[in-house]
Write a structure and sequence with these properties.
With 323 residues, the protein is an alpha/beta fold. It contains ten helices and 14 strands. It has an eight-stranded mixed sheet with strand order 8-9-10-7-11-12-13-14, covered by helices on one side. It has a six-stranded parallel sheet with strand order 3-2-1-4-5-6, with helices on both faces. α1 links the parallel β1 and β2.
Length: 323
Amino acid sequence: MSLRLAILSFWHVHACDYAREAAGHPDTETVAVWDEDPRRGRARADALGVSFHPDLGGLLARDDIDAVIVTAPTTAHRQVITCAAQAGKHVFTEKVLAPTLAECEEIIAAAEKAGTALMLALPRLYEGYTAVIRRVLADGVLGRLASVRVRLAHGGAVGEGWLPEHFYDPAAAAGGALIDLGCHPMYLARLFLGAMPESVSASLGHLTGRAVDDNAVAVLRCAGGALGIVEAAFASPASPFSIEIHGSEGSLLYGTPESKLLLSTGAGWRELPVPPGSGTPFEHFVRHVAAGTRDEENLALGLDLTRLMEAAHGSFTKDIPGA
């Protein structure tokens, strides 16, 4: 039997991607749409050939909906996801789970009480290069870890400006490049560092003059001295996704700029084979729902992600006198 889905909002830029993935998955079927913007929601529902519900409660009351894809505004996640979990629906959601740790804990408690699956879209967690990097770190090949740097950027705020204007609304998005695109380098840095950092400091830039940051850097400091550098931007169209990991006995590079994983332990660089990934987050979600399981690592990493983002946005960098 197919997993019957509803899509809750087309606010996020990836909502249409998930709609296509659900339509192409052999074990899922989209049956309804809700959106806080009724005009947008009706248009998307018509395009999918499914019913539109202007009332979220009415949609969640349907017994022919098993799960929901939540691509609502970030600041609406707590309300939308909690309501879906309380209605007994499994939830697949865009990152971040919520802007604050308190909201995340409320969401997770609701899902646990209902016994429903809850999963975040953390795609790079399931990539082949991530699996190889984790194995290299576990084997201790790099020695004592010194630094992890992960950068992800695009040009959505410059040139043709394809990023929708509502992504620059702090009331809906809870921030800009760091809390959106920066989620990916942040959870990867946290994963590769191997422990929760003891402090974080962020600097947020506004190259295009919008209300939210479009250029951001966060520095994570771990108890043992290792540092994590997280970089994200909406205004760098040619910037490659890249990973650098350096230790006392070697270094590892990925995507600088080719999609190759390179390892050096002092005698030149050699390329490591990168296997295919283990599937998309949505594919993992469908498998977990079918098996009656939850991706505990996904949830734990998602919770740490919000911890780090909340701390980063609460930090500050002092201005330099006379600058």
